[in-house]
Every structure is written in C-alpha cells, then in structure tokens.
Amino acid sequence: MSAFLRRFARNRGAVVGAVLLVLVIGMALFAPLLFPGSPWDMAGAPFQPPGEDGMLLGTDSLGRDVAAGIAYGAQVSLIVGAVSTAVALLIGVALGAVAGYLGGWADDAIMRFTEFFQTIPSFVLAILLVAIFTPSIASIIVAIAVVSWPPVTRVVRAEFLSLRNREFVQAAEVLGKRPLAIVLTDILPNALSPIIVLASLMTATAILLESSLSFLGLGDPNMMSWGFLIGSGRSVIRLAWWMSVFPGLAIFLTVLALNLVGEGLSDALNPRLRKRGAAH
Amino acid sequence: MSLLEVSGLTVALPPGGDRPNAVEGIDLTLDAGEILCVVGESGSGKSMTANATMRLLAPGLAVRSGSIRFDGRDLLRLPEEEMRRLRGARLAMIFQEPMTALNPLMRVGDQIAEALRVHGAGNDAARRVPELLEAVNLPDPRAIARSHPFRLSGGQRQRVMIAMALALEPALLIADEPTTALDVTTQKQILTLIREIQQRRGTGVMFITHDFGVVAEIADRVAVMQRGRIVEQGPAAQVLNRPEHPYTRALIAAVPQGHAAARPARSVSTETILQLSGVRKTYHRAGGWFGKGVAVPAVADADLVLHRGETLGVVGESGSGKSTLARCVIRLVTPEQGEILFGGTDLRPLSRNAWMPYRRQIQMVFQDPFASLNPRRTVGEAIAEGPITHGVPRDTALAKARELLSLVQLPPEAMNRYPHEFSGGQRQRIGIARALAMEPQLLIADEPVSALDVSVQAQVLALLTDLRERLGLTMLFITHDLRVAAEICDRVAVMQRGRIVEQGPTEQVFRSPRHPYTKALLDSVPGRGWVPPVAHGIDLAKSE
User: Fold this and answer.
1) How large is the ipTM?
2) What's the mean pLDDT when you consider all of chain A?
3) Is the CB of residue B371 less than 8 Å away from at least one CB of chain A?
4) What is the pTM assigned to this prediction?
5) pLDDT digits (tens, 9 = 90+) for B101-157
6) Do the Cβ atoms of B59 and A278 come within 8 Å?
7) Domain ranges of chain A
8) How far is CA A128 from CA A131, B14, B388, in A?
9) CATH superfamily entry for domain A2-279
10) CA of B410, closest CA in chain A: separation in Å?
11) Burial of B84 (0-12, 13-18, 19+ CB in 10 A)
12) Which of residues 337 through 356 in chain B touch A, CB cutoff 8 A?
C-alpha cells in the first residue's frame, strides 16, 4: 500500500487534486457548522459585493449568502457525483462482466443495448428523464446514472475479454470453481485498476451534469446547488459577477481535482505505463 | 584484423536492478565468414551485447566502458549520423519475432525496397527485391513481394527479415534468437539458410541463442555468458565437447538428451485409465457480412489410450492441435464428437455439474508460469483453493498446501507470498503443487517446461519424473520439443494438422519412425548429430 501511495505522490498534480478534493469534502461536511441556518434565508442586503457587510463572497439578488450557497451546494454535488457513479458502476460492471465472460449472443445483445444508449446524446436524455420524473435529488441521480454507465460496460467487457483467456482463469475452471466465483475472485480483482480510474472521472462528469441540470432549473428545488447559483446569477451577471463566478470556480476546481486524482490513480495503478522506455 | 572486436564492454543497469552491470568486461572477436554463437540463459546479457553493438540500447542503459571496433572504427564513439549510415548497410540485424519486426501495413516488397532506398540504392529496388526474396528460398518472389506480412507464415516472415537484412550485403549480421519463435522444421530451414548465405557472401554472423542444439548445428565459435560475463569462449567443437567452465558443463548437462534408449523402460500396468476415440473439435471462424466462414479442424478423429501410471507424450508443431486435444480431455474445450472414456465413463456428454467429481481426478499444469497464477492471490491460497472448492475444510487444505510446497521443493514461507515474488521455475512448481492438491489420478501437462530456461527446465522435468514415481501419476504430456518428450515419456503420439499420424513406445518412434512427418520432425531436432559429452563422454562433434 505504501508503494502505491509513493507512486501516487510522484504525480504532483494528483497530490494537488487530492488536497482540493479533501477541502471540498470538508466544506460539504462542515457546511452546517460554518453557516448555521438555511442557505435559502436572507442574510443581508441584496447585491452586496464580496467582502462587504460581513459576506465573504457577497450576496445574491435576494440577499442570500453566496458563500453559504457554495458550501451547501458542495453537499449536493458530492452526493450526486458519488451515488450516481456508484449506480452507474453497478449497472456497467454487471453488464460488462456478463458480456465479456459469456461472450457469444449474450455479448452481442448487451453490446447492441449499450450502443443504443450511446447513440442518444446523454445530456438530452438526462433532461428528458428528469423532466418526466419531476426534479428531485433521486431522479437526478437516476438520470445521470442511466446516461453514464455505457463506457463502464465497454471498459469492463474489454478487460474481461482479455482476462478470461488467461491461464489462471482456465486453471480456476479446471479446479471446478463456479463461474460466479471465478468472475468475482479471479477476474474482477484483476480488472479493478481501470474501473477505479474511470470512476473518478465519471464522478467529475456527474458533477458537471448535475450543475448543468440545475442551471436549467431542473435541480432539486429543496437543495441549494452550484448550478442553481449560476443559473440565478445569469441574468444579473453584469451587475453582480460574483453570483456566477464563485460557484463556477467551485465547479471548475472540483472537476479539475477529480481529473487530477484520476490521472494520479491511473499512474499509481499502472506503473508500467509510466516507466515506458526504461529498462526491462 | 578481425571484423568485429569487442573489448572490455561494460553496460550499466539502472540503479535498483539485480546487479550493477547488465554486461561486464565483454571481450569478443568475430572474423569475416565466421559464425559466433553467444549462448546463455535469459537475463545473461546476450541480447544486451548485440544491442550495444548496433547502438540500440534502451534508454536508461549506458555503456560505462570498453570499445566495439568494427572495421577498425569504434562504433561507440561514432556520431549518430555515421552510425545510421552503417546500420543496415554494413551492420544488419534480425530479431526473434518477425511479426513485430515487420511493418504490418506495408507490403513486404516495399519494406525491402525501403531498406535499399534509405541507403541510396533505391533505383535498383525493382530488380533487387525479387532477387533477394529468391536468395532466401521463397517460392514465387514476385507474389510474396506484393503480400502483407500477415499473409505469410512465421518462417516466411523470418526469411523476409533475412532478405531485408542482407539487402545491402552487410559485412556483419547480428541474429538475436532468430529461430526461437519458429517450429523445429522451419527452424532447421532457417538455420540452413543463414549458414548457406553466410558462406556464399563471407558475412560475419553473431548468433544469439539459448539453445545448445542450435549452437551445435551452426556455430564456428561459441561464447557462453552467465550473469553479464563471458565465462567460456572457444571453437564450437571444443566448448561443446570439452567444456571447461562449471557453468558451461551444467548447461550442457541440462540439455535434454533426445535419445530415449538411454533410459530404462518403466513397468506400466495394463489398466486403461483414459481412452479417446474419434474425438473431433472444429473451430469456426465467422465470415463477416460477405463471404463464408471458415471451418478449421483443430482435432480430427483422435484415438488415444492411456494406461495407469504411464506418461504419454503428445508432440507436434504449433497449430497441430495438441493443446486443443488436452483441453478437450479436461473440458476447457468441448469437442463436438467422439468418446472420452475416463475409468469407463464417457466425459464428453456430461453437464458442468456432472463433471465436478472428475475435476478432482484430472488436473492440469499450464504452460506460462507467469500467466497461470492469479497475481492477486497468495501462493497458499492458490494451492488450497481447489480442495476448498470441493468441500475440504480451510485449515486442512492450508496444511496440505504447506506439505505440497515442501514436496515441490519450495520453502513453507512461500505460503503467504504473491506469485510475482517468484522466478519462472518456482512459479511452475507452484502450478504443479496446485494441480497435485486435488490428488488427481491423471495429470495433464501442457508444455510445462517450454517457457523455462534449460537448467530450470531440467529441474522441473526431474521433479515431474520424481513425483510420478512417488504418487503413481498418469501423465498426458504435451510438448513441441522432441528432446523433452524423449526424456520423460513412455509412449508418444505425433500430431500433424489435427491428426495423430503416429503413436507408439518412445524408443520405437524415435529410433524407427514410420510416418514421413515424424521423420521430418526428428530430422529437424537441432544438434541431432551432437551427443552432449557429460552423459556419454564420446566425442561426436558435428563437423560441417
């Protein structure tokens, strides 16, 4: 494990990303302590620029604290990012494993099904799903999961295809292990690295998707989110730039952090790719 | 003055390697018209020596000291541009794997023409390319020149590589294991070709190999390398028949003999344990939208009988169907026809569940020790896994695993370590222990030693021989190496293109083969005329 951390730390960007991510998570966890009271409540005069009236990042058109909105918005972004990624992984890994392990007609059927989802523009499908199921945090998570599992299926299928013909998998078959046990204990652990890397990048995409949805007014009406903040600040951007810029920065930094961490994980999990060209 | 003079060559390994220098103090000379074989096991630095001569060392490897003089000029001190002009024109190289050494998207004729063009001889290309292809004995040179590499067989590709290397009539040819990836019959043809061309043109050849049989076949002089140093060097007849260094002696002693007669026949019961009749497996390649699919018979009407306690060798070249046959017996592949009688029961129509009890009785040892163990599972777990699957309590299975480790001569500490901490030979022992944990009656060994160095190969073969005596194992031994088969098998079956063309007692098949293919195979065994001196002490060096 320490060797893994050392390889991870060798990528400076990844360390920066990890620190940023920890800050965002901390902000989400401690939002109620940092900003007691609801982020929807009026906290001062409207349109206060950053720094004035005791408001670190200013207030919006209804006098709500932008900083409090960002802190509470982090909760929504992280919950949506993590849960929708988990759901997408569940669907994607299961389908990819079946397709890659069984092959044949099961593989054909699952891959055509996957392609069907990939041909629909994912954002449009997400909007449609949220609009049909009425906006709520659950429907947003489901919508994002539904549009983001196909790449997982493809990656997992490819890994399974190459692993299932390895001799150690054949050896497990010869020992009489059941197919489910072979998939779970022999193949899946060896296919984890790309899945972990993919998951970190998917979380970033999910956060972006959630922000885009709530920017369009399809966010959970009871929860403050970064997309909503930008959306509500959009019409007054020339008057009060801080209303859009700070939530935008929050999205930017979080997505960047996740991408950096993903890259660091990829380096740490596949050390051979990094050392390319060195002595064998 | 020699054509090539390497003196005091030392190449450093990056820090953290298993030794400070990849090669150390290498002294070699090579005259025009001479074949120098550099022999050694994997990791001995033989390829490194060749690459240093071509200045093709991987980044991170630096020449620390020494000189490589070619025609009087030190190659290590030439400017890159001069070196580029020498490469291809005066120094040429052929590699082990001809498929990866050729550009897959370019017709082979164009690739040879390109080699000519790079050195300013492009005008002659139209005339020279067919000539060159003809010189390496390729049939219909014009058609071959228009083919892409994937259309050619392994042997044909290697011939194309040789034609390309010889295009500009180099003075020095470096061949890095050029026949290792080829079948024996093809290997023999390529060796003859290299010999013939080298004599015709007076080329100096540095031939890198791990196989003493090949050395006996082709070498004028031999240099033996061990852990980066040359331990012995001299004329072929002398090194092969009167080796002085203990390492050379050990290596030569480990070479499988290839003569079954030396081994006393073992007594074997007449009880039949496995009987195959009319087993057939055909692979279908899908034809896409247009065109029909192709049916490839991998095994066609195979009949075999295996008696209790006996070792039956299945020999043949790649693609002969020997591995598919073994996989049919153990149900990694389902044959579409035939009977597989194991102790009287036909295994072929059984369902997965009905097969379960037979998983205990039939086990398999795989070819690649690096791929056959799950990298994420400890050795103890890997060995105990089979019995646990079949309901043996965990503690009992782990205790058994510890016993088995000592049986295959590994320390008990190995239990909690992961496969990557072991060498190839050790991993193969682990694979054997895993198979034996099920206490099988029949052990299928699919090329169990072909990925191993010759000295390790000898140890693993000795272990298998010892185990089959002690445990009364019956073995189905798949191998492409006739020398190995002669060493361990009581009877052999020879396969060609999916069919068993000949079978019988090892000694009889090897001494008086009846089928022409068996004869061709036996004729192709490298170093056939050479009897290693350690076992017999007779001087029978092949003088060519």
Assistant:
1) 0.78
2) 88
3) yes
4) 0.81
5) 888 899 999 999 988 888 887 788 888 898 888 888 888 888 888 888 888 888 888
6) yes
7) 2-279
8) 5, 57, 51
9) MetI-like (1.10.3720.10)
10) 20
11) middle
12) 355-356
